[in-house]
Amino acid sequence: MTQDELDTSVGYVLKRVQSALRAAMDAALREHGLTTPQYACLELLDQRPGLSNADLARGAFVSRQSMNVVLRGLEENGLVERPAQAAQGRALPVRLTAEGRERLRRAHADVFAIERRMVGVLDPERVALLRADLTRIAEGLGG
């Protein structure tokens, strides 16, 4: 692929945006003692307490094995808790602790500041169109 082809490739530009967003989030979250996957996990648990490891992995776009590592780190830091045994089946529902909620609250402000900066170069109508277009693109790819 030539440089001109790269510059006009939607996929390449999306990856460039994703990479820049991830770098900005990693830097901001480091100040809160969190990684981006840990933050995603905390956000998911705040919205839907009791999710299983598999549900969290899907929502955070990581493998189940990676989510096990994420959860172990969050547990060791007292940010989430899981029962020792499943009430039914094999899934161990995960919940935020009070410290997890507080850490999420503080990190949330920084992450949303990054989002505002990212879309701040566009007017609100363009942001709405971009969101709708990206949603359609993801659905078109089965995601």
UniProtKB/TrEMBL annotation:
Species assigned in the record: Actinoallomurus spadix
Chain ranges of the HTH marR-type domain: 7-139
Identification of the protein by name: MarR family transcriptional regulator
Chain coiled-coil ranges: none
Protein origin, superkingdom: Bacteria
One Pfam family this sequence matches: MarR_2
SUPFAM superfamilies cross-referenced by the UniProt entry: Winged helix' DNA-binding domain
